[in-house]
Write a structure and sequence with these properties.
about 290 residues; alpha/beta; Rossmann fold; 7-stranded parallel sheet; 7 strands; about 45% helix; binds nicotinamide-adenine-dinucleotide
């Protein structure tokens, strides 16, 4: 896609963090926006903020884990703007802690949002993008946790690796089918957003029987809060995304300091050794 000017962009998780930064950057490029988020008050306030800058915005309260919600989002986007050119499947949540402390509710919630959110976005929007036959682009937000694996992030890493796999499959197929649908997968490391407070959007049905976090979850939550706060601005990530859409770049790696960790994993796979990791401080002391 040569330019984002005048394009229709759908962004899930658009009320905060990376999603909101993408929305602002797209609006600055002259795109029209469809903002989707499960957090209604934050969604309305983000939409108002963008509209006040002169952007055309449709806000649709959407739980990306529910296919019917995402299908409704797609229908409303087309009803309002007639077309969709950019789909950012970005909404995501995170839990931390060793798998031995995880509950089935943790798994269901994180897989529902992070993986089914992207699956639902592809299922609902791909037929529209193919039918249009114009230059279009999916940007699926994975994470550097979709390329490497460490302890304490097993559920999150599982979903993000799956998002990378889904995105690669979609890319290959769009190429083979000679469509005009581009695909990128966004793989940042730490970004200064509200991701550590993901629990604010956890549905009552996926709540754990006790609010008490396990010992590794407590430790990692504190560690994650610090590194996220020291992370990149979401605006920097949004700049990478716009450049990648224009350049038709598939992998969007925003943190070059993480490349050695990706290399280490690949070397272990090819070399047949056990997987290695760089532990966060304190994590190697857990019994
Ligand atoms: N912040 C980081 O360090 C980091 C690093 C790598 C990848 N990511 C990924 O970036 C994406 C955006 O996260 P962020 O860091 O901006 O966090 P954030 O919490 O600031 O924003 C996430 C948004 O997703 C929304 N959301 C949560 N559950 C939803 C649901 N079921 N349906 C619709 N919307 C929902 C939230 O309300 C929020 O507005 C996520 O996929 C996350 O995994 C974040």
């Amino acid at each position: 896609m040569e330019s984002i000017q005048g394009k229709i962009a759908v962004i899930t998780g658009g009320a905060s963090g990376i999603g909101l930064a993408m929305a602002k950057r797209f609006a600055a490029e002259g795109a029209k926006l469809v903002l989707a988020d499960v957090e209604d008050a934050a969604l309305q306030s983000a939409a108002n903020e963008l509209a006040a800058t002169g952007a055309e915005v449709l806000a649709v309260r959407t739980d990306v884990a529910r296919f019917d919600d995402v299908q409704d989002l797609a229908n409303r986007a087309v009803d309002r703007f007639g077309k969709v050119h950019i789909v950012c499947n970005n909404a995501g949540v995170a839990t931390a802690g060793f798998l031995a402390e995880a509950t089935i509710h943790d798994w269901q919630w994180v897989v529902g949002v992070n993986l089914f959110g992207v699956i639902n976005g592809v299922q609902a929007f791909l037929p529209i993008l193919l039918r249009q036959g114009e230059e279009c682009h999916f940007v699926n937000t994975a994470s550097i946790a979709g390329l490497i694996v460490g302890p304490g992030m097993g559920i999150y890493c599982t979903t993000k690796h799956a998002v990378v796999a889904l995105s690669e499959a979609l890319y290959h197929e769009m190429q083979l089918m000679q469509t005009k649908v581009g695909v990128s997968v966004l793989c940042p490391a730490w970004v200064n957003t509200k991701i550590v407070d993901s629990g604010r959007n956890r549905p009552a049905g996926a709540a754990n029987p006790t609010e008490e976090l396990g010992p590794t979850a407590k430790m990692l939550q504190e560690y994650t809060r610090q590194v996220v706060k020291a992370g990149l601005s979401p605006d920097v990530i949004a700049n990478h995304v716009v450049s990648a859409i224009v350049a038709k770049q598939f992998y969007i790696l925003t943190h070059p300091e993480m490349t050695p960790a990706v290399q280490m994993r690949m070397d272990a796979i090819i070399g047949g050794s056990a997987p290695g990791f760089v532990p966060p401080p304190g994590i190697n002391k857990i019994q």
